[in-house]
Specification:
The complex is a heterodimer.
Chain A lengths: L3 E10 L2 E11 L4 E5 L6 H9 L6 E6 L2 E2 L10 E4 L11 H11 L4 H14 L15 H13 L5 E5 L7 H18 L2 E6 L2 H7 L2 E6 L2 E6 L1 H6 L4 H7 L3 E11 L2 E6 L2 E5 L9 E6 L5 E3 L6 E10 L3 E8 L2 E8 L11 E5 L6 E4 L4
Chain B lengths: L1 H37 L3 E3 L4 E3 L5 H8 L1 H34 L2 H16 L2 H12 L4 H8 L13 H24 L5 H8 L4 H29 L3 H7 L6 H10 L4 H29 L6
Helix pairs in contact in B: 2-12, 3-7, 3-9, 4-7, 5-10, 7-9, 7-10, 8-9, 9-12, 11-12
The chains are: A alpha+beta, B mainly alpha.
Chain lengths: ~350, ~290
């Protein structure tokens, strides 16, 4: 049975459609990320769950109770805001205790729970400091402790890590995930950072133009994206346009500029124009004149752990990424062959645009 | 050469601020010192008026006479009332203003700042037309039959306070508004998400953070009310004497300049004492909001 359920949720501001017919079920204890570019409706959806924005249509259920019309202060949700939104005039302990105070929790229990939560986020010694005396990462933890101490039914995270440095952000991702696992709080994360969504979530809900594009486990969404948008948003890809030539025995052959690209799928009929997608890390560099297509290395970039090659081929420009395990002699201007397994090729619909 | 430039750069700030400094010294500091000295002179009509010297007679007279006590207490009470109503009306006004769309915000801002564009005397005479015994308010109330005899608003504390609140509320709105703009709008949502009802959010989250604005607004309003002259003199008249009008009467009525000066100096001292101690009290109570 799902714990948080969105049913046909829509939000329109005048003529502008922010969220359109959103349906989603989240299990108890699950960590789901809303991922998408800015303006895709992910934050609006979060605000509808929080109760700060009224949906135009649709309903929101938590634990089978319709909360669509419930005021934000009665929903019992924990929210971590992008700007942290700590109360600057209160100490860390008072900030964390605020929600408990509102719930009329007796002082001894309140103190106990605040202490417990602050030590869980590693800020046990900071109880009597004020927010401005803390670093960004520490303020982030206070915001998390404040949201979690009330034992919320659902934890909502609105781009909580986007204001942090890259290094601290990675640490916080791991820590946040660990805390969420420990407490088993059902969590919704809103983010535009695909690596953050993949690192932390049980499932990713990719959103585009107000609609859910795909909801899947991170691996599934990355490996089996349902359209070009999801493919491109979750990582880099080489997108080729072609015509379906033959479909037989679970294998589709696509003609791309005269080169035959095969893929394991039977979803499209002969004659359909489709996109073919190959992730850069799935491609191998082989001897020139062997492999599926040949080309010339146009540029190469060394990133330490990996190489990025830009290869000009008759099919267009390919991006190939390879682990740093002996490719230093393949230089710009060299002729190479590109090869890949037909298992790694995805066939996608041509976007109607 | 280098040294010359050095001299120039080091004296330039003084040169640039010299005109302002001259105005400050000439028009404020010197008259203030002269008033201070004058307050120690004595006055005797039989001996030809003002006699230079040093005497505490004027201070003794003001501090010892119940007549003056009454005037000072009335001024204090009036300043407290006006400040209180300015806080009560101006703070919500600023809060609502801050949440308006930009178009409405500028329209309402104009309405709030409007009173400042009109001369205080003209504005006060306007109030006199409104609140006089045969003024518009009384005529209307009698006309629709709510009252039989006119309400007394002219020459009463109520009338003066109403007019002063109208005159001074822009200062309160502006300073509260300035501190509201430093407020992270998300903290209100955060408070609500933690289970605080909207009013609790205001009381526990918003107001403590805009305390610096309320403080500076009330200091301005208090100081301006305590030294207000035009409004109390036109709407309060001789029946509702305050310190400023009393000093004026001493100067121009009885021509006892030294006594008037002593009253003015005492008003200044009282103002400074009240304002600094209020400031200290609020800053200590809401220490974190001031950092």
């Amino acid at each position: 049975m799902s714990y948080l359920r969105l049913e046909g949720l829509s939000k329109r501001f005048g003529d502008f459609v922010a969220v359109e017919d959103m349906n989603l079920e989240v299990e108890k204890g699950e960590f789901v990320s809303f991922l998408g570019p800015s303006g895709c409706g992910k934050t609006t959806t979060l605000q509808m769950i929080a109760g700060f924005v009224n949906p135009t249509e649709g309903r929101i259920f938590i634990n089978d109770q319709d909360i669509t019309q419930v005021k934000p202060d009665k929903r019992n949700l924990g929210i971590v805001f992008q700007s942290y939104a700590l109360f600057p005039h209160m100490t860390i302990a008072d900030n964390v205790a605020f929600g408990l105070e509102m719930r009329k929790v007796e002082k001894p229990e309140r103190d106990e729970r605040v202490k417990e939560m602050l030590s869980l986020v590693g800020l046990g010694d900071f109880a009597h400091r004020f927010p401005r005396e803390l670093s960004g990462g520490q303020q982030q933890r206070v915001a998390l402790a404040r949201a979690l101490v009330i034992r919320p039914e659902v934890l909502l995270l609105d781009e909580p890590l986007s204001a942090l440095d890259a290094k601290i952000r990675e640490d916080m991702q791991i820590e946040l995930r660990a805390i969420q696992r420990t407490l088993g709080t059902t969590t919704i994360l809103v983010t535009h950072d695909q690596s953050e969504a993949m690192a932390m979530s049980d499932r990713i809900a990719v959103m585009n133009k107000g609609r859910l594009a795909q909801v899947d486990r991170p691996y599934t969404a990355y490996e089996y994206p349902e359209d070009g948008f999801v493919t491109g948003f979750l990582g880099k890809s080489n997108m080729l346009s072609g015509l379906v030539k033959d479909v037989s025995n679970g294998v589709t052959s696509v003609d791309v500029n005269g080169v035959n690209v095969t893929t394991h799928s039977e979803r499209y009929d002969i004659g359909a124009t489709v996109h073919v997608s190959i992730r850069p890390e799935k491609i191998r560099l082989v001897e020139a004149e062997s492999g599926i297509v040949g080309g010339t290395v146009g540029a190469r970039i060394f990133l330490g752990n990996q190489w990025i090659f830009q290869v000009d081929t008759p099919l267009g420009e390919f991006i190939v990424t390879l682990q740093n395990t002996g490719h230093e002699n393949v230089d710009e201007g060299h002729r190479v062959g590109l090869d890949w397994s037909s298992q790694e090729v995805r066939i996608l619909p041509q976007e109607q645009s | 050469m280098a040294q010359q430039q050095n001299i120039l750069t080091s004296t330039r700030p003084y040169l640039m601020s010299a005109p302002a400094l001259a105005i400050y010294v000439g028009l404020f500091l010197i008259p203030l010192i002269m008033t201070f000295m004058l307050s120690f002179y004595t006055f005797d009509l039989n001996k030809g008026g003002i006699l230079p010297g040093f005497s505490l007679k004027n201070y003794a007279e003001v501090l010892g006479d119940p007549y003056f006590h009454g005037i000072f207490l009335r001024t204090l009470w009036m300043s407290l009332l006006v400040t209180f109503f300015c806080i009560l009306l101006g703070t919500p006004e600023a809060y609502i203003l801050n949440r308006m769309s930009n178009r409405w915000k500028s329209i309402c801002m104009l309405a709030i700042l409007g009173p400042l564009l009109v001369s205080v005397v003209v504005r006060t005479l306007g109030w006199a037309i409104l609140i006089g015994s045969d003024g518009i308010i009384n005529q209307a109330l009698i006309g629709i039959g709510i009252i039989d005899t006119p309400i007394k608003l002219m020459f009463t504390m109520t009338g003066v306070v109403v007019a002063l609140v109208h005159v001074l509320i822009p200062f309160m709105v502006l300073s509260v508004w300035a501190s509201l703009q430093k407020l992270n709008p998300m903290v209100e949502s955060a408070g609500q998400s933690l289970g605080a009802a909207p009013f609790t959010v205001l009381r526990r989250v918003v107001i403590p953070q805009i305390m610096p604005g309320i403080l500076s607004g009330s200091l301005i309003v208090f100081a301006l009310t305590a030294s207000a002259f035009a409004t109390p003199s036109i709407l309060g008249g001789r029946r509702l004497k305050v310190v400023a009008t009393t000093a004026y009467d001493e100067y121009l009525g009885t021509l006892n300049w030294p006594l008037g000066a002593a009253i003015a100096v005492l008003l200044l001292i009282a103002n400074v004492l009240i304002i600094t101690s209020y400031n200290k009290f609020i800053e200590r109570k809401y220490a974190q909001a001031f950092k």
